[in-house]
Amino acid sequence: MRPDLNEVLRRRAAGTGNMVLVLHEVSHALDRLARTGETHVIDLSSLPMTPAELQQLTASLGEGEVRAVIEAEGRSEVTETGFSGVWLVTHRDTDDMLRGRYIEITPLPEILRSQDADIRAAAARLARKLDQISDLEEAS
């Protein structure tokens, strides 16, 4: 028996059903993070979801207190959700085209962590600046 086309179209209009599945995955991952420290990433770009489902997902997660914008080879936005440890991360290229949308379940998204090489370079730069300031103070 063939499925009723109207029923198929109604289901498609309602969405894929992935929004609730993603929320369950977030819930389980957040529990693991709390118990073991294990982090988890969900690639929303790879999941079939309607714009309405994506909007409903972000509304269900809510907004937290932290938001960051990174301008490096395009714009990345990191937003804490209403659940500590659950972050929405969106990457765009220099033409503002969406390149990735993720939910990261982690204490701190990787993109916000300072890289070891950058920290070493910053330490050397600050040491040079302090040397310059000391030289100016001695000269005056």
Automatic annotation (TrEMBL):
Instruction: Kindly give the InterPro entries that the UniProt entry links to this protein.
Output: HupH_C_sf, HupH_Hydgase_express_prot_C
Q: Where is the HupH hydrogenase expression protein C-terminal domain?
A: 20-131
A Pfam family reported for this protein in Swiss-Prot or TrEMBL: HupH_C
Cross-referenced Gene3D superfamilies, in alphabetical order?
A: HupH hydrogenase expression protein, C-terminal domain (3.30.1370.140)
Family, similarity comment: Belongs to the HupH/HyaF family.
Q: What protein name does the entry list?
A: HupH hydrogenase expression protein C-terminal domain-containing protein
